[in-house]
Amino acid sequence: MGGSIVYLPQAGANPGVTKNRAFGATVAVQRGDTAVMYALDVFTTDPTAITAAEGMEISYEKQDSVLAGHTNTLAEAIGDELTYNWIRGVKPAAARATTVEFLPAARMIPTSGASTAVNSEDGQTGTRKAMTYKEVQAMQAKFNKDNVNKNERYAMLESFMYQEFIDSLSANQMAAFAGSADLANGIVGKFAGFTFLERSSVLTLTTEGVFRLPGEARGATDNLASIFWQKDSVTKALGDTKIFQDFDNPLYYGDLQSGLVKMGGRCAREDWKGLGLIVQAATA
Question: What is the Cα–Cα distance from 120 to 197, expressed in whole angstroms?
């Protein structure tokens, strides 16, 4: 993958329509197009050394295990970064400057279920309102109102929010949801026009609505979020994973392995339509 910046043209306003226009020339206007952009970041793993002594002693193929560790770690890191990149927008500004903005609060739907204890694994404390199927239906209505394409809509739910969603379904809803799963391709089900995916970590916001950086420690009062999108409303650029290998290195008395991949992404639309979050709500 070559350059480091991707520009996405944004179409200006559509032309107006006049019914029974009077004869004669009318005024032509030029469409004012703009652009948004995103950078391609370079992700690298820390090198791993496999000494010649290990090669003579271990009883399994450590080389393959180490390589898998590098590729899997890069894939996990990219997954964390991509959802963050989608809710963070960069636009060109005057004098070659840029402006940064985040998904607006109007694109977020709070959970509305019963007060539920949070999971301590995420560093949270206390209770939050559980996620229910009603928030998903509200997201569907929001996408419909925005005239977002009804095909290829997706949802990526954080693991515990996904379990809360499952618990809210009726027996008939659950049967239909489970029947639409395609686990071989990572699809856990379909509901309200969205194809559902599940992940251990998606996004986190502080009580002030500030997004936590990928990998940043969560606070006790932070709220988890699950992300919803339509395929054409988001974009990404991902290069091939490059594995570096230095065999028989004289300084380390063995082999060195590391990996690199280039990736970037953002919401493809300046108006953020076709992208939304369901965010945990605090209880009274």
Answer: 23
